[in-house]
Design goal:
It contains two helices and no strands. The chain is mostly helical. It has a domain of 43 residues. The chain starts with a helix and ends with a helix.
Amino acid sequence: MFRKLREYAKEAYDELMHKVTWPTWKELQSSALVVMVASFIIALVIFVMDISFENIMRFIYGLFY
């Protein structure tokens, strides 16, 4: 059992160190900026939907009071 676990760890290390292409610092910064902008846009869309739904529900409830 420990032999299989040790073999798995060795292969995982070998793959991470020799087969994986890691991004550069500039690529990481660029990707982080894209994620931040996309997150902001999605948050803004959800905020607008929430405010719109709130106003629609107030209007509908106002018809019955």
